[in-house]
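Final report, closing paragraph on structural work. Over the funding period we assembled a curated collection of sequence-structure pairs, and we close with a single example.
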Amino acid sequence: MFSKDTYIQRREILKKNFSSGTILFMGNDYTIDDIVWMGDMPSVASLARESGIEQTAGTDELKSKLEKSGQVLFLPPYRPEHQIKLFQLLKINPAEAAQKASIPLAVAIAKPGMTEAQVAAKVSFFCSMPGRNLQWVMPAI
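Its predicted structure, as stored:
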């Protein structure tokens, strides 16, 4: 992991790209099966604290906060459990989750100085991996 200050600084830069809305980053705590195979692992809350995020929430609390926040920006979900979580939180049909993702957020998260072609190449490479496919189209920057 990078230092806590690095993550805080990156989020501040990211926030400057958006005048409104709530940016939702999803994480999953480990299941009992994961713990059996990998041993004790840090929780999402502890990893969040290490990266300078002071507030995390369970599904019910998060759902309540997101309902009040207006626009919610999220990345295209590539994990089925994130598609289900988006349905629980925002009532977004899992089949439509990728299309409703924030492309401007995905572009803003790309490394500074990357060209559109480099971003598209990384997305295409990721989507060409076994069991994955391209679920959204990169807009012109």
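DSSP finds eight helices and two strands in the chain. The CA atoms of residues 4 and 51 lie 4 Å apart. We thank the funder for supporting this effort.
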